[in-house]
Amino acid sequence: MEPVDRLSELSDELLTHVISFLSTKEAVQTSLLAKRYQNLWASVPVLDLDFDDFLPSYEIIEKMEEDEEGFREYDDKFMKFVNGVFEYREPLTLDAFKLGWVQDSSDPAPATTWLDTAAKLKPKIISAHIITENYTLEVPDSVFISESLEELELHLAYETIRPKSVNLLWLKRLTLNSVEIEDEVMKKLLSGSPALQELLLPGCMLNSGCISSGTLKRLVLDGSENEKNTPNILISIPSLEFLEVRSWAMGKLSFKDLKSLVWAHIRLEELSDGETFFLTGLSKVNSLELALSVSALKDMNNLLEKKNNQVSNL
């Protein structure tokens, strides 16, 4: 029996779908397989661009650690590739845009243009992981104004985001990792995302006094980077079902109107004087997990003796 080339029997549409699961570098490389593949990558609805894909082996990287000029060669290759992708790609809408650029010596200025270009292609998902040590990244306003975006993830090097306005009508999940968030920006993000259900803030520097929403169902709050700035934060979210506070350096936390809360996990280094948030604001939660330091545990035991009737479900 002669071998059958079933791959060639697939339609261009199905092949493009298969290629979309590859990184963009791998997708472009499929153009070398056969003439039929030369332009398929240009219609793929997912762009997955990662600087790490352009680096040499780990052994070579170790030798280059003190050589910024050596890394600049790979920066240039990466930038040339990404610019080429946008130049030769078909002007079609995107399902997802993923960008990774983690290199201390890199200047991420081109990423601002890439994010702006991608945002205008109406993706449902934008994920950007950009960490540099000596440069500042400006996140373009177009990222925060979208009629299509459902998931947005920004993992930055403690940059401050300053959108002029926020209009994300269909955004359901927002992840801000290692980002500095001012109170005014927090209010813009929440008021400008009327469908938001999940807000994840790992490692963020929070300068916000209140987190209030009528739609959020899940909140992850991590103030471990707030050692120099420990604001008092009020969380008032009637729709909230799942709450996780992963912090050893947060200021005083208080909770209001969490009437839908099902599960909460709280980790704290210490309790502020007279703090009874876990007895009042969380009094109706079905399941409460606490991770406390020794000193915080002693403070809690003292408070429990005084307030032992306020936690009705625990």
UniProtKB/TrEMBL annotation:
Coiled coil: none annotated. Pfam families: F-box, LRR_At5g56370. Gene3D superfamilies: Ribonuclease Inhibitor. Residues 7-46 form the F-box domain. InterPro entries: F-box-like_dom_sf (IPR036047), F-box_dom (IPR001810), F-box_SCFL_complex_component (IPR053197), LRR_dom_sf (IPR032675), LRR_FXL15/At3g58940/PEG3-like (IPR055411). Residues 135-228 form the F-box/LRR-repeat protein 15/At3g58940/PEG3-like LRR domain. This is F-box domain-containing protein. It comes from Rhynchospora tenuis.
